[in-house]
Amino acid sequence: MMSTLTIAIVALFVFGYLLIALESFVKIDKAAIALLMFVLCWTLFMVSPESYIGGSGEDLLARVSGIIEHHLGSTSTTLFFLMGAMTIVEIVDQNGGFNWVRDVMKTRGQRKLLWRIALLTFVLSAILDNLTTSIVMVMILRKLVPDRDHRILYASMVIIAANAGGAFSPIGDVTTIMLWNKGVITALGVISEILIPSIVAMAVPALIMQHKLKGKLKVSEDFKEENSDHDTPFTRRQRQIIFFLGVGGLMFVPVFKALTGLPPFVGILLVLGVLWTVTEAFYRHLTEASERIDTSKRVGDLLSRIDMPTILFFLGILMAVACLEQIGVLTALGEGLNTVFQGNHYLVTGVIGVLSSIVDNVPLVAGCMGMYPVEAAGDMAVDGIFWQLLAYCAGVGGSMLIIGSAAGVVVMGSEKISFGWYLRHITWIAFVGYLAGIFSYWVLRSFVFTVPL
Known about the structure:
Shape: globular
Radius of gyration: 23 Å
Helix content: over 70%
Largest sheet: none
Distance between the termini: 40 Å
Oligomer: single chain
């Protein structure tokens, strides 16, 4: 039986979680709620820490401090990785590195455009992240598709493809970053095993949605190219260098980890340092040539645009989940799920994926990492069935509702897509793709990957 103190901590967490889920109604930023959850949960923990970790006096306080610092250190590796990746993407975007994407997308055929959007979003999401990719793709759609009724269909495909692309990449989604940093999946393992299910989760919805689109696009007369070459003082060659350093650097991070054994966030900071140095050299040359060059897009200025509320949200929620892990609630919950589903990892992770479309997948995955221990061998080992399925389900499952992922929320706000419209027209399509991906993974595991890689 849980103690009164444990029940109070859990109740506080659930209440805070509810406020986060209802952010649009309560009008309080989820980052503020997450930080309060973090502090209040650990404050309640301090009412009787000896009941959870034992000890007394100064030794008890030292042990508590050590535990919190341990969890904070683990959380910080994810936060620094995110901050570095977000800054790199911002540098590439603001300095014209993504301009070539607009040219790749041009086509008059509606179905052809759908597939180009799906494939390019899928690839970019794996390299960058699903949030940034969604922003870039919606911006392009506004220039290519003037009719809103058609554009929201394409935008819905962006959500599905972005989440599918992020699921198989160790740097494509916050949840896969968390699992990779934790060491429960490897870059090679998640790519080799989840790539095909992710492609299926993207391709099946695209096949269904293409029947809603026929004929040629009406080209907007307002379409202009002014953003292609005049939004940055850099030459085409310099923009290409920035693109390949940024995007190529992100792709190099898993290789850096494999070569050095250092945590992924160290590789991200290496790429950021190189890109920062190169752009500063470019700007130095420009300012020496002309005193009127706009330098507002230098890295020092771009750092102020980093989405700090998102970073603080991750800090708060991950540290609050760490408190639940410390009091033993997550372990008990994991044992309960295994009992209900009789240890069927497909059912457990499948349910988690459906839940991720309703509530934020970050605390769900964080909770799972605390609920289930990593074993030396079997389905719970590194790159085992459970962790691979968790990466897939938590990432792709968010597509079933428009509020179920960062990509969905961004598109919802940008294109004013209603929750009800998405629920009626897209949810079932995303769900079919989600199930098809799980089935394809079962086929791979049953007939191809007979043992974990």
